[in-house]
Amino acid sequence: KSVSDEKKQMVASVEKQLEEARELLEQMELEVREIPPQSRGMYSSRMRSYKQEMGKLEADFKRSRIAYSDEVRNELLGDDGNSSENQRAHLLDNTERLERSSRRLEAGYQIAVETEQIGQEMLENLSHDREKIQRARERV
């Protein structure tokens, strides 16, 4: 049981680290968007390679997790259960797709909120500028 508990802790630790890495990549991507256009290309290509590497790591981890869970199930049940293995892999794929879509939606929402804030600031600046121009006209 201690080996099983140890493996569960390792899996949880890796999942947590992968989630942190995903969040860091999202933050880095937002930062890259704010970089001046002339140097943005280099950073964008780095981000693509980081994302590809992250995808590979997640796929490797998923395969390892499936293999481990199948190994444990086979030990408990004593059968091969290929169809349930395929179903489990399919469910994990779908779950992962949903998680990625959720992260994309959250990132899109965050960008929309930031855009709205910037627009509001611009409107306030324009309003102040208008007031200044009107005061200057009145003085003239």
Automatic annotation (TrEMBL):
GO terms for molecular function: SNAP receptor activity; SNARE binding. It comes from the Eukaryota. Keywords: Coiled coil, Golgi apparatus, Membrane, Protein transport, Transmembrane, Transmembrane helix, Transport. Residues 76-99 are annotated as: Disordered. GO terms for cellular component: cytosol; endoplasmic reticulum membrane; ER to Golgi transport vesicle membrane; Golgi membrane; late endosome membrane; SNARE complex. The keyword Transmembrane applies. Residues 87-99 have a biased composition (Basic and acidic residues). GO terms for biological process: Golgi to vacuole transport; intra-Golgi vesicle-mediated transport; intracellular protein transport; macroautophagy; retrograde transport, endosome to Golgi; vesicle fusion with Golgi apparatus. PANTHER family: VESICLE TRANSPORT THROUGH INTERACTION WITH T-SNARES HOMOLOG 1A (PTHR21230:SF26), VESICLE TRANSPORT V-SNARE PROTEIN VTI1-RELATED (PTHR21230). Interacts with distinct SNARE complexes that contain either STX5 or STX6. Interacts with NAPA and, to a lesser extent, with NAPG. Identified in a complex containing STX6, STX12, VAMP4 and VTI1A. Belongs to the VTI1 family. This is Vesicle transport through interaction with t-SNAREs homolog 1A. It comes from Tinamus guttatus.
